[in-house]
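Q: Can someone sanity-check these two? First one:
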Amino acid sequence: MIWLVDCSACATANELAKHTFWQKAQCGRCGATLPASSLERLGRAAFPMRYSLGLALALSLAVLVALPFDLSSTAPPAEVPPSALPAAEGNHPVATVEEKQSAQAPSDEQALASLKQGVHEVLTTAPRVAPLRIGTPVGDEQYYVKIVDADTGATMLTLFVKAGQTLRTKVPLGSARIKYATGRVWRGKAELFGPETRYNEADEVFEFTRDDRGVQGYTVELIKQIGGNLSTRSLSRAEF
């Protein structure tokens, strides 16, 4: 870095490559001492005391490091939720508002989201080799389907099919009936879709067979159609 300093005696511009606190620069033409800035004058005054100042600074830092600091009081104590506090002897913990709300029944949207399409239960050990495809109409009703052994009346499979969807699965060979319950909000296997549940059964007995050509399956559209070939009848809860 280079400075240009004008001489106050002869007005000559002097180019200085170095400018130190402890050396006074002189004009290269007349030899007069060049003017110094206030910072330079301060540095020259402090330079003889540099060792004393350095020692004082070192002692000050040592004292600060040695001082104990208690930082525990600077942070507020963490709040403990009521549910985490131990219950007094003879008493029971009291549920918070949030806990009570979470213990309530799920909303309609949550119930619908939990109704996953697919095979719900497999209640037979017979091999499932025959194809079955079930389609449902567009709307807000879901379908809980039972595949029942036509000879014994035992349920072999239960299925969930959402509105406007098609489910492909496989069932055992033999004669089967198809029963189904419909409703909007699933409330579990015991209540199905609640009081609004409607129960139906297809009149046809479906024959799932195997021959030289392969395995015979069915496509069942649970959709009311003009000229449709699948008739159904209503069932009671007990018949379902």
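And here is the second, same format, sequence then tokens:
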Amino acid sequence: MEQPPVTASTPACREALLVFVNALALDLHQRRLPGSAAPLLEVETLVRAAAAPGRDVHWFEHGPIARRGSQRQVGTDFGQRLQHAVESLRAAGYARIVIIGRDCPTLQAADLEEAFTRLRSGDAAVLGPASDGGCYLIGLQAAHTDALRDIPWCRGRDAARLRTRFADLPSSELPEQADLDSILDLRRLATSLAVAAELARRVLALVAAGVRRLHEQAVFALAEPFAAARERLQRPPPLAA
């Protein structure tokens, strides 16, 4: 079934937050994480906190779509799907695009706002490098979406390749953060001072005990302290220029 085209909420809306994700169950499966880790991959709170006048949020999902209004990712591989998403936003008239996934539990609304601020100040690109060589955030002017073409994604060199693509243009980077791609990453997160660390430790305890699947209510019980703490850390961003 053909999807309706992406449109801006108003003609004056010039910024787009692109939430580019797999379906949650698919993400957990690919990362070999138990269902109890689902709250660590939740970004709805973050997305709500990043709302600002002149900015729209567009979800592009791969796999079964559970969110009303989400777009289905189009393409045979990650690169094709990402390129289709950013080109759709560019065609809708957005001038600045910030891309996030759901695999950085320490990402804050302030990081997103900083990326948009730098784009408004003239940066062609803003990168959020991940500790594994990938990126937890990519911000770019819509005029430069072609810079994402033909990159061999998800091989631990995304950040380095993007630095090369934007080497001759004004660009900047946010502080490095860790993403969550495996049980090993979960263990690292559990030893950190991040707000997500306590939940990560609880999930690891369940894994060690052989509990791979929890009743939905148990998952939400684990999620509540993490979601509350993360929401407290979010700050309403300033008005977009």
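A (reply): Looked at the second one. The chain has one domain: 1-241. Confidence is low (pLDDT under 50) at residues 214-222, 233-241.
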